[in-house]
Amino acid sequence: MSEVVTLERQGAVAVVRVNNPPVNALGVAVRSGLQNSFNAAEADPEVKAIVLVCDGNTFIAGADIKEFGKPPQSPSLPEVVNEIEAGSKPSIAVIHGTALGGGLEVALSCHYRIARKDAKVGLPEVKLGLLPGAGGTQRLPRVVGVEKALDMIVSGNPIAATEAEQLGVVDELFEGDLLAAGLAFAEKLIAEGKGPRRTGERTDKLEGVDNAALVAAKRAEIEKKTPGLFSPQRCVSAVEASFTLPLAEGLKRERELFAECLVSPQRAALVHAFFTERQASKVDGLPADTPVRDIKSAAVIGGGTMGVGIAMCFANAGIPVKILEISEAARDAAIQRARDTYGMSVKRGSLTEAALEKRMALVSGITDYADLADVDVVVEAVFEDMGVKQKVFEALDAHCKPGAILASNTSSLDLNQIARFTKRPEDVVGLHFFSPANVMRLLEVVRGEQTSNEVLATAMAIGKKLKKVAVPVGVCDGFVGNRMVFQYGRESEFLLEEGATPEQVDAALRKFGMAMGPFAMRDLSGLDIGLAIRTRQRQTLPAEYKLPTILDKMAEAGMLGQKTGKGFYVYEKGSRTPLPNPELPAILEAASKEQGVERRTLSDEYIIERTMYALINEGAKILEEGIAQRASDIDVIYINGYGFPAHQGGPMFYADAIGLDRVYARICEFHEQLGAWWKPAPLLEKLAKEGRKFADL
Ligand code: 3H9
């Protein structure tokens, strides 16, 4: 018998134990181990009930994602779960941590389920471009009804154990020891003479409800919210089979739909996004035994939107945080801003009043650098001006204790120069949060030329503690994300000057999957943002690097976006709904004329090429310069910080999927037609000519 699954007997109860770290995924060894153990327990005349329990932090967290795309190995999971359900002795799944995907499907094939109070259960397959493929779409509706099953399967979001109990997904909640709880439940079943209770045989929850109407409504909702996604509609089709077909045929239909998802490019992209997000936290060349400093307290310099958002991240993680401002009024305003922002979450129902008070108790305001003497990490979030940063870092150097981490949230300034304002450049690191910092998951951890390994490792650990996706990057103008988005923004603006409208560009990119179009995004962040950077670039860039002027023209006319009610779109008072800006066509005409460009019709495909290939070309340069460690880190940055669709895998994965030879050839054409900005990255040229991919690096 496989050692990842063991079987032992405790009186009349057989205990099947899974021990496959880190998350007890259902690789082939676990599947065959489960099959063998349940068969052996079935065959043992002394056994009256079977308990399934897992070692480590969690129950089974799903199929082994690493096996997708490889030749299938027997036994398959559907085979295993069908056998468990068919068993003649009552079986009990004892859930702790998370029972996800195939893990919940195994639990649903057991005849009873109990869960530790802090556990979660769910079917998150849709987030990987799949659907539950081992009976989840047939068994869950039989337990919770079609409406709730559709919600869980199409959203992929897990539910807490308490809700699972209310819904009947689990029979009982427990606290404390897993095995003791499992054995007690099993002995109770034996004493009461209870036999198997097979989910697949139930039909009560499928009756007396207009399930067809629920399915139609869900389809319409998906069509509206995520029209470009492959697997959600198939999830619905699979659930539909639970009430239109007998179990065996429903399971067959589920398998067919699962197989369609398995070979879809979106599944490959989403699995890439899953693994690369985890890989990004690993810093190449950083020894595994690098010590990590203890972070028990924090401070933020500057109580603007960014500073307060960063302070909230620490408070959310239970770390006391001070906000330093220059005056008492500014300090009090910062504290109020934090309270108001939490207050909005309370209004939305995502935070309780008590949790708000608990978090606010961790946030304090100060005006004196001397009060920073005891903090473990300081994040500077002041105005983007080197002179201002110099004053802050000199003061930090004077007041912070030895060993404190001095971090800058700069998004474009030279971190190495900032570090030199202190006598301890090895303690200086960049922590580049994205706005709103308390919401956005991405954190670029900027490694300066003198940042020590210990400080880098601690900065990555801080990212994890704050529940961010922390990605290490090197020093350059804009680091990875903003350096690339500059290329994307510039091309979008050129497209307007060549004949496109903001509506067309935004719609094309949203159809591609971007969370927001570039112009709706510009209106949100404000057209004056980056004005200083553009002015500096105009002065320093060689003459052949032309910049679009549309943004500056609009900013000069006072069209700053949502904050002035007018930008690329107009916004009625109190509304964020973009409406066409009637003054824009004349401004676009004038800008085209000024650039000497004849306005023409541009296709959506062309819009995608211009914007995406600009990202890819810059990404290749960033890789070559070593600013990002891996192509996949760039993907992680783009997905988590810039609304890039995970189902396209990130810009570099997208390039690999198209084929670098094709991308390179098109960039060469653009270079010829559009000039200097399009000079192909040497790395892209090399890989294209060698027939390789970014993923091969
Ligand atoms: C499925 O079940 C299909 C079935 O319906 C049908 C089949 C026929 N496989 O996230 P963490 C690794 S689809 C392989 O950092 P946490 C992960 O890469 C599956 N590996 O920990 C990482 O490795 P490393 C449905 C996996 O505590 C390590 O485990 N299930 C898997 O923050 C730790 O992961 C899911 O989609 C896996 N399934 O969070 C659940 N899962 O250390 C996916 C994790 O080398 N998993 N790894 O970087 C999760 O959501 C989280 O990992 C979990 C733990 C919440 C479980």
Summarize the structure.
This protein is of the alpha/beta class and 697 residues long.
The CATH homology group name of the largest domain: 2-enoyl-CoA Hydratase, Chain A, domain 1
Bound molecules: (S)-3-Hydroxyhexanoyl-CoA
Question: What is the terminal separation in angstroms?
Answer: 39 Å
Number of separate domains: 3
* Global mean pLDDT: 96
Portion in beta strands = 5-15%
Helix tally? 28
Low-confidence stretches: none
Query: What is the structural class?
Result: alpha/beta
Tell me the strand order in the biggest sheet.
12-11-10-13-14-15-16-17
CATH topology name of the largest domain: 2-enoyl-CoA Hydratase, Chain A, domain 1
Give the % helix: 40-55%
What is the level 1 CATH name of the largest domain? Alpha Beta
Report Rg. Answer: 28 Å
According to DSSP, the number of beta strands is 19
CATH architecture of the largest domain: Alpha-Beta Complex
